[in-house]
Design goal:
152 residues; 4 helices; alpha+beta; single chain
């Protein structure tokens, strides 16, 4: 009987937490929740040297009704050494357009990031397959492959 009571108490405590997730602890809009799931980050590095960080939100996942004519990414970077030319690649292809955005922009609410030391970009690529491999290059430095998959 004692074992049964302990097991029952344990099950009640565990099942009380089962329906909760981390987003319930914060007041977030639906788009903010989607962007948290569509966000990927990487260090920008060469061998063991780090030159910065790149963060990328796949906007087609966040607002599929708005972004229909290509693959759109909201990208923000921090670079220690800004002397190198940078480029964005998606599945080894160059973007169609790159728009540098001000610190406070239409996407700031998605990530709640608007640091003065970051650079912000809206990057558009041609429409591609279901698997998307995003890379940021900065001279000899490169991010890891940031992988995104379309929900079809």
């Amino acid at each position: 009987m004692k074992t049964f009571t302990i097991i029952l108490t344990f099950l009640v405590l565990i099942s009380g937490c089962a329906s909760k997730n981390a987003f319930e602890q914060f007041e977030m809009s639906e788009k903010q929740e989607l962007s948290a799931n569509a966000l990927a980050r990487s260090k920008i590095k060469y061998a063991d040297k780090v030159n910065g960080i790149v963060s990328t939100v796949y906007l087609n996942f966040v607002s599929p009704e708005e972004y229909t004519d290509g693959e759109y990414f909201y990208v923000y970077t921090y670079l220690k050494n800004k002397n190198y030319k940078f480029r964005f690649l998606l599945n080894d292809k160059e973007p169609i357009s790159i728009e540098e955005l001000p610190r406070k922009n239409a996407f700031t609410e998605l990530t709640s990031i608007d640091n003065e030391w970051n650079k912000y970009y809206l990057v558009k690529f041609e429409e591609q397959g279901d698997k998307l491999n995003f890379v940021f290059e900065n001279g000899p430095y490169s991010s890891d492959i940031l992988k995104f998959e379309k929900d079809e």
